[in-house]
Structure formats: structure tokens, C-alpha cells
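Lecture 7 notes: from sequence to structure.
We start with the chain below.
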Amino acid sequence: MGTGIDEVDWASLRHAHGTAEDVPGWLRALASADTAERATALDGMYGALHHQGRVYDSTLACVPFLLSLVAREELPDRSGVVDLLVGIGAESADGDPRAREAVCAGAEVFVPLAADPDPAVRRATAAALVHFLSAPTRVLELLRQRLRAERDDRVLPALTEALGLFVRRYPGYADAALDLLAEQGAPPYGPGLRLAALGQLALVAPDRLPADVVPTAVRLLRERSAHRAVIPEPSADTLVGRLRRLRPSDEEGSRLLRTLHTGLGDRVDDRTALLAGQLTSPDPVDRCNAVWMAAALLRGWRGDHSATVRLLGVQLAAEQDRLRDAAVAVLAELGPLAAPAADELHALVCARPDLWTHRIERGSPTLGGPLKALAGSGDPRAVPALARLLAGPAAPVDLGFALIRLGAAAAPLAPAVRHRLGRIPPASPSAARLAAPLLAAIGAIGDEDAVPEVLRLLTGAPDSLRARDAVAGQAVETLEALGATAQAIPVLRALLHTRHAAAAAGALWSAHQDASAVLPVLLRELAHTDPERRCRAARQLGRLGPAARSALPALRRMACSWPAQERVSAACALWRVDADPEPVLRAFRAAWVDAPHTRAPIARCLTEMGPAAAPLRHLVAAELAAPRRLPARPGGRGGQAVPEDETLLRACREALGTM
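Predicted C-alpha cells for the same chain:
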């Protein structure tokens, strides 16, 4: 192999990080007697030759040498090289077929590896047989032989997964493979293998699952856990070692149940029952794995999740920090949906004040998960702890956002929020970052006494300072929410020639309902080149109602435009200004289908329209019947996916009720 390596002009080849001159050293190190040297070389090859699934010319040049390495039985750690070959050849992120062709050309090397003395090699080879050998009948027979001969419980699940892969790759030969899977899902096979078989059947042939699949799976999980060996964590300080330490301590058990959940898909009731079995397991490792699977269900599917959330709350009393922290992290994402766990969250908040805040090294403190989840659920029992944090010297920077869900219950905190807002230097570069949560809280609480402090932020910084411009938008929105007072009018008028003109015009309208003062500004903004400014202008024109009739031609044009956000903003304004349903419903129908993230504002406007919105009743009803959640809006925070979807569902229910 060494001679062959030297014959390749590596300097002319490339990988993810530049020239491939370092590749020969990695290839030779893979054959080293030193464990750390081999691991470092494998790290390098994963990061450079198969970076994010891409294929490079140096990747193709390496394949023959990697195939040669795995064929040498005397070399240790060949399973990692087999995994690398499978990753390179199975599929390319950029659709390049050359890597697969290169591995397929040497696929015969995997046949003897299927019976290799090293169980790790046998495990890694199972998928390679299906991916790269060309004759399906031969592949199936090899898998059948290995299933009959294999005795290692770590290898058998990989063979089962290979059968599922075989069914997907060769559906014309599926029946015999499915028979093997059904056979493995029954006694006398062990619980781990039976779970693996159930998971694969759920993925490829759900009609072959037993009727009692959930109680069977729960029983098998507990039998498996009762006899599971404790696997020591890898200690090598390498990329691969670090990644393995981040995985669940029972990675195989996690994968088995994850596969079953994936296969059950939209069967939410079955998955909820399965999670109930997992979350009540005597084994804390099983429960920890279940917490993250519960997160996947809650984020991705609609339904009555109260029982699952209550069981997540039970985990908060666990002695294992990892289990408790996992449950807290999931509950903190749920917003009001976390309410069934509020008692347990409150108990944890009371028992562990040290968890009220969280600080990343050299970062500002943020609100700790238990208190964030309790406040996010809307439970007023969060108020005393939040009050103590607000009174302290270093309140979490995001604390204000937690008050939004509490609404009127947070009213006692208004003076403290106002005081903290008053301590922010308006000229500071961090003014906007510090003020945003507090302004949001003031708007949600409705603290009209905070108007002077909001105005101080707008007037206290020099006009040329970016800090003023950064904070102005939210400050004006807060003034609008509070109802702009006479003292705010001069400041708002000064903003009518800035990028915050639409918001300032809206706040002025709230103050004195004078269309002549704000309509020219909003018409100008409606023609701006910035789509965000056009949307803001349309929303404010809608608030003017019939007083904005002169904007109707521009709004009608905008309601036929794209992107969808503009179309929806203009259509909502059209209804509020003119009450003609025809152009509004036409715009809504197109946006509802093409841009799902606009459905919540559409549903809110449909509620206003009442019976006039009836032609879109079928869209709203279909949304309420859909089992899957909408993903977070483009550019939104992933952790907001559940609250945003729940907001959409509430808006749809209200709209349907008015039609």
C-alpha cells in the first residue's frame, strides 16, 4: 500500500480544508500500532475527506487504499474505516455518484468482513453489504447466514437494521426479508434484537407489526435494560471520542426506540403510550432517552400531550442531574403547554434557587431553565422568584421575556422592571440588547407609568449613535402598546423620517387619531424598497381603517405581490380599510398554501372577517385536523416552534368559530 500511496500526486488534489498533501500521512497512520495515532488520523479523514457529506477528488483517490486497509485482519480499529467507507459511498451531499461507484468497485472486500473475528467490524459491515454489493439475492442470503451464525448481541441489531435497509433498496425482494424481520421480532430471540426488528418493521412494513406493539416494546425495553452492561465512556481526547461522549450512555437502546418512534410516525396515541412506558421505566437511562424522544414528539406532532408533559415533570425530582436537566430543557421550550408540569417546576424552583440563573463562561447571566419553564407556562407562582432576581445586582438579561407569558400576573413587578429600564445608559452600544426584554415586558404588563423611561431611551442618545436607532423600533412599539401620551408626540414626530416611520405613525394615530398627520407618511413607506418597511406600513394602514381609503390602490397591488408576508399584510389592511372580501380571500388562499408561516396572521384576520371568511373554512378545518406541527418560521428560533404552532391552532379555532 505504501508504494501505491506515493504514486498519487496528492499535492494536486483537494479536500475540505485545501490541498490533500496531508492525506498520505493519515493513510499510513491508520495502519499504526499506536491507538491515539490511528484515532487522530481517522478524525482528520472524517473532517477533510467526508466533510458534511461532500465528495472531493482526494476522497475518490483514498477509497482503494481504505478498502485495502480493512482487508488486513491484523490491523486493529478497522471498524472505523468501514464506517468511513459506508459514509463516503452510501450517499453524497452534492449528489456526486463517483464515490459510490468507487466503493462498489471494491465491494467484494466486505464479504469476508461479514464474518471477521472482530465483532465491531462485523457490525459495521452489515450495512456495507446492502449498500455496495450488486446482487440482491446474494445480499439477502449473506444476511440470512450471518443472522443464523451471529452470537454477539452488539452485532445482531446491525444485521436487523441492514434487513430494513434491504427492503427499502430492493422492494421487489422484500417479502423474504420481511419474513426474517418478523421471525426476529418473536421469541426465542433476545429483547434487544426483538426491539430492533419491531423498529424496522414499523419503518418498512407497519402492517406486519403485532397489534400489541406498544406493550410488547415496553416489556422488551425493560427486559433489555435489566441485563444491560454498563459501557465505559471513551477516554481518548479525539474528535471521535468527544462526539461519542456526547451520545446517550445507552446509545443502542436510544437508537432502537428512536427507530420505533420514527416508524410509528403519525400514530400519536401509540407513541404517547410508548413514551409513558419509557418515562416510567425503573432505569434512569431509559427515562433520559425517553425525555429527548418526548421532545421530538412534542415539537413535531399535535395532540393531547398533557400526560407526556406530566411525566416529564416527574423527572424533575430525579437524583440524576442529567435526567433532570434534560426534562427542564424540554419543558422550557413548551410555553403554556408545560402547564401540566407546573407543580413539579414550582417545587424545583423553590428547592433550588441556584438554578434560577444560568451563566455561560464570561457571558451575562440568563434565566435558568426551571424558572423559565414555570414562567413560560403562565404560572403566577414564578413571580416571587422573578422579583428576587429583579431586585438583585445582576438580573438575567432575558428575564423580561419571561414576563410576557405571565401577563397581568406580572403587574407587581412593573416598578422593578421600570427601575431596571431606567438604569440602562441610552448611549451604550448594548442598550438595545438590554432594553429589548424589558420593553417587551412593559408592553405585556401595560405599565403606562413606564412611558417616561421609554422616552428617555429614545431621546437620551445622540442622533448619530447607532444605539438610538437600534432601540427605537421596539421603544415605539411599546409606546403604541401603552397608548402614546402627549409627552411622546414630539419624539414620535421626529421619527417620521427614519426607518421607524411606520411604527411612529401608528403610535401617533393611537395618540390623536389624526389621519392627515400620518397617512402621507404611511403611503410613502408603502412604496419603500425595503419589504419589511412596506409590511409595517400596510399593518399600520389597516389600523386606520376607512380613514386610509386613499391607500387602497397601492394595497390592492401589494396584495397580488410576493413575498407572501407582503401579500398577507396588504390583504389584512384591505379588509380593515374596505371590507371587500374578494381580493382579501384570493391573497389569503395563495399565501396559505405557498407560505405556511403566514397562516397565524391570516387566521387572526379571518376571525375579524367572520362569515365573510367562510370560503376558506376548508383550509382552516384542514389545518386543525393535520397531525403535524408547522416548523418554526424562517429565521425564527427553533425553541419557539411549539408555542408558535399552538398560537396558530388557537387562531384557527377562533376563526372557525366566527365563520
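Points to note: The chain is about 65% helix and 0% strand. Residues 231-236, 239-247 have pLDDT under 50 and may be disordered.
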